[in-house]
Amino acid sequence: MVDRIYNKNDNQSNKLVNLSHFIIKGFINNNSNNERDLSFQDLFKTENKDDRIVSILMSTFVCDWNWLAKQLSIVIDDCYDHDHLPLCQVAINYDRSKGTNSGRSEQEIGNPFLDGSQTISLKLSENKSLPIDIIHPPLLVSQIGILHSKIILLEYQQIIRVVISSSNLTGSDWEVLGQTIFIVDIPRIKKNNIDNINDNKDQFKYELVDILSSLGFTDDHIVNALDQFDFSMIHQHGIHIVSSIPGVYSHNKYGLSKLASLASEYQSTSKATAVYQSSAIGMTSREWLSSFKAAIGTDNLTLPFPTLNTIDEMITYNPLGATESVTIRYHDKDLLLSNKMLSKLQYNNERDPKVDNSITNLSSHPPLHSKVLITDRWIYHGSHNFTEASWGSISKRQSTIKISNFETGVFIPTALFTGESIQSMLRFKVETPLYDFDDIPWQMNKHYNILFNNIHQDNLDNNNNNNQDSNNSLNYHWNQFKKEQQLLFKFNK
After folding, report:
1. Is 148 a catalytic residue?
2. 476 to each of 21, 65, 104, 130, 482, how far by Cα in Å?
């Protein structure tokens, strides 16, 4: 599932196309041919087939390097010789126990790539390898925090494509899990217009440079190259990047403070309801919950989240999706349940009519890894989950905010959504019943044994067309979870 804003540039106009919500191409149990479908390789397609990639910049929490090598080997074909390969950098989370800010990537790079090196050689074919600089951005040593931003920046000769999503660089994220993504193409400025364009206040560009620099992308060719592109169209439409950067701040540039500042310009009515679908819900205090509601401008907030019964049924109808539900985390004790803020996550079957609608629950659909906050005046989409670590905690005197994670998302005024309702574009239903008294939220840390006891290897093989490489790629998070738990798992045959 993907949210997309796509800026189509041609010689006549710059047109902002509406936000779309859709299933990613290749989802195993979905035969949808929805025009909004998107694959990882689709990110690299441009209207001008002769426009060559100059540089690739990506940030991710985790990366399946073998999967990424296969994807890039298709994108970077024979038209790129050894002397003209694009520059490539990847910022990735790392294990701080190995060093303050220089530890190895949390998921080892491993063979056939160099493990722990700052530069790896990603083998694309027998005679071609792509050097990739690995970046480990600074994290706060004194507290829990991760790099969770998911950004892809593709510089071409004529455009630069900005991609902000909820997807990590794994086959599971792009082909199994439900995700959201923002895409915009920014045209390169003609040489005689550069001075005039750069006099404009392109806030979106400054916000992008800020997060890229904070993540550690220091290559002048990538970061400073943004000055060569015209971001004014994005600025004119009121679209902003909302980032979280670890630290303590007395301004409103980051996290919940930034969201509050933007939301204040689009005041909702006091009775308006906000809906926040995210793949993780953290331990929530009354103080932080109050701060969050104040920031978005409404006391009425509901959180669609899968129940234990949802995942239990998914095991039968969609075992591959069920295994990747280990990415869905719930850590709150009873505050949200007692305040009746959890609602049943239900899919909008009309959104993808070719999905099996005879199954009325979520079992024929993928687990949602997306993070979407919907109000009557604006929408947020990105990497922020409903956690204090993601958004930050505001001090009691409202003077500072303390942030743990790197996060990145996009703030979009709903006035841009014309031609169809927001609900018709969303993969899940906005208005759904609240949890019943006997409903239990899916809590991976407590319930993962259900997966171990009920998932059969034959089911996964059938879903993966008996392709072992595909199986490893599409079960990436499940396989990593088993390693983390150091569990010896044997499938029943």
Report:
1. yes
2. 24, 11, 19, 23, 10
Sequence-distant (≥ 6) Cβ neighbours of residue 415 within 8 angstroms: none
Residue from 136, 240, 365, 369 carrying the catalytic annotation? 369
Residues 280, 441 contacting (CB under 8 angstroms)? no
Place of tokens 């049924």: 313
* Residue 391, H or E segment: helix 388-391
Q: What is the pTM of this model?
A: 0.87
Which of 148, 365, 384, 477 is the catalytic position? 148
Active site residue 369: yes
Going along the chain from its start, the domains and CATH numbers come out as: 2-235 (3.30.870.10), 239-483 (3.30.870.10)
Q: Which of 159, 166, 108, 102 is nearest to 136 (CA)?
A: 102
Give the model confidence (pLDDT) of 3-12 as tens digits: 444 443 333 3
- H or E stretch including 205? helix 203-215
Query: 150: annotated binding-site residue?
Result: yes
Q: What is the pLDDT of residues 269-302, one digit of tens each?
A: 667 889 999 999 999 999 999 999 999 999 999 9
Instruction: Render 318-370 in DSSP notation, one character per residue.
Output: -HHHHHGGGG-EE---SHHHHTT-EEE--B-GGGSTTS-TTS-SGGGSPPB--
- 371 assigned binding-site residue: yes
Tokens of 441: 């939220």
| Confidence category of residue 435, pLDDT binned at 50, 70, 90 | very high
